[in-house]
Amino acid sequence: MNDDPSTSLTYGSYLTLDQLLSAQHPSSDLHDEMLFIIIHQTKELWLKQIIHELKLSRDLIRADKLIEVHKSLSRVSRIQAVMTLSWDVLATLTPADYMSFRDVLGTSSGFQSAQFRQVEFLLGIKDKAHLRYQEEGSEGHSGLSAALHQPSLWDEASAALARAGFALPAEVLERDWSRPYEPSPAVEAAWLEVYRNTSKWWPLYQLAEKLVDVDDAMATWRHKHVITVERIIGFKRGTGGTAGVPYLQSTLSKRAFPELWSLRTQI
Ligand code: HEM
Ligand SMILES: N[C@@H](CC(=O)c1ccccc1NC=O)C(=O)O
Predict the structure, then answer these.
(1) Catalyses which reaction (predicted)?
(2) Domain 29-266 bears CATH identifier 1.20.58.480
(3) 96, 149, 186, 190: least surrounded by Cβ within 10 Å?
(4) From the CA of 90, which ligand is nearest?
């Protein structure tokens, strides 16, 4: 046997392609179901990379390495752009194509994506109700539970503001991290000072604009999702049990960094 990694490693073995490429199991014999599976698997791989970057970003903010965060958050927003573009590939699926295999999906739905919720939780959009869709003891459950109970990127950004000398109340700095975040006038006032005096606060200002890029890209992805869903299933109810398009429209106003949006009115 050849144990020397410089000659024994192959493209396929390095990337574990045997497993990756044998993980597509259409439940019907319809041609278009393969596209549906590949689109979703690709999206889960990108979400895995986004989670990897967001954890690093959170640790870097905690360590006051605000310049180093750029690379990671820029990568996240570029991946989000690719994910948004991939809706155009899915939109080649016509309503009739999709309805021919929709039944096999049962009650499964993107609503149950543990990694999607983990991204929301890492950014700061917390809703512990989503834990119940993950099986206790599964990797999805443990990742989501950890992100729920730890400070989000936005909580870490507030802590960084406090270390920089901004007075923030205890309900921001020592909150129960698992609770939904409530926008704070003191946080908005601190970021407003950063935006009004950018040369003094440049690293914080650049961090804020990188965070806005990520929030912006998330909203753009959500918007393209709802448009594509309306194009494919109209106003049918969702397999996951929601009203469908009206539910998805109600998520468009979700923001991970609300004060970075509200402060713009004051400038
Ligand atoms: C034919 C294509 C699709 C249709 C008709 C569709 C439809 C829906 C509907 C109706 C919901 C609301 C939950 C429910 O009741 O099921 C939903 C949620 C969701 N879908 Fe899709 N979807 C499609 C493709 C995708 C793709 C390709 C992705 C990811 C790349 C995705 C990710 C999600 C996520 C993450 C949610 C949860 C959103 C939230 O709660 O904020 N969906 N989808
Ligand atoms: N919620 C979709 C079904 C769906 O899209 C779906 C089903 C299984 C796995 C991933 C899915 N994608 C996103 O919701 C529907 O109502 O048709």
Answers:
(1) L-tryptophan + O2 = N-formyl-L-kynurenine
(2) yes
(3) 96
(4) 1
